[in-house]
């Protein structure tokens, strides 16, 4: 015989279990099922504001201390970097280790660069001379550091000799790099306004090392 005993209010129907969508865990005694309360509009707005501010803060900290993107406006570093390339610079690198010859570096230009090259601001060049070095460019455009020829596979022969071809009387020049200063040159030697023109760069002007090209897609590479 079916059970006809009266059930107290809130008792789940026969054959159900609490929490299965039909039992006492999902009903209030004598009322409809419980539903989660929605957040008030002001709470949602506050939550989104906090998320946006946090994201912007993190982005600014990354740009200020870790990584920054730069645009290449000229062909002074061809073929390594081309006009319109976009690169990522590690701003923390030289806080963790010393500067290395051959690094491609973004730096703030000395005051003389603006008048000599027609534009100042920031430049990207390859580090050639370290503090205390004697840097010599011979009549054929090859570089010698402290009397030893520098191996430079990143310089194309035609671009190395362009200055020589345009000026047959050129017999080479020598520069001494002062303490705390650095000597920079572009890989496109015939089309680069660099330390040969406006001198050396103090360490405090170094922004960071170029670690990768990220645009355009066909140019993506690690330096």
Describe the structure.
There is one protein chain. The chain is α+β, with helices and mostly antiparallel strands and 223 residues long. It is 22% helix and 25% strand. It has helices at residues 41-65, 93-96, 111-117, 157-160, 162-166, 195-198; strands spanning 67-71, 86-90, 104-108, 122-129, 134-137, 143-145, 148-149, 173-176, 181-185, 201-202, 206-215, 221-222. Strands 1, 2, 3, 4, 9, 10, 11 and 12 form an eight-stranded antiparallel sheet that branches. It has a four-stranded antiparallel sheet with strand order 7-6-5-8, with no helix packed on it. The N and C termini lie far apart (85 Å). 21% of the residues are buried. Mean pLDDT is 81; it is low at 19-28.
Tags for this entry?
single chain; 223 residues; alpha+beta; eight-stranded antiparallel β-sheet; four-stranded antiparallel β-sheet; 6 helices; elongated
- Largest sheet features: 8 strands, antiparallel
Oligomer: single chain
How many strands? 12
> What is the helix/strand order?
HEEHEHEEEEHHEEHEEE
Structural class: alpha+beta
> Could you say which overall geometry the principal axes of the C-alpha atoms support?
elongated
What are the segments in which pLDDT stays under 50 over at least 5 consecutive residues? 19-28
Mean pLDDT: 81
Estimate percent helicity.
10-25%
The termini sit apart by: 85 Å
What is the count of helical runs? 6
Q: What is Rg?
A: 33 Å
β-sheet strand percentage: 15-25%
In short:
The chain has 223 residues and is an alpha+beta fold. It is elongated, with a radius of gyration of 33 Å.
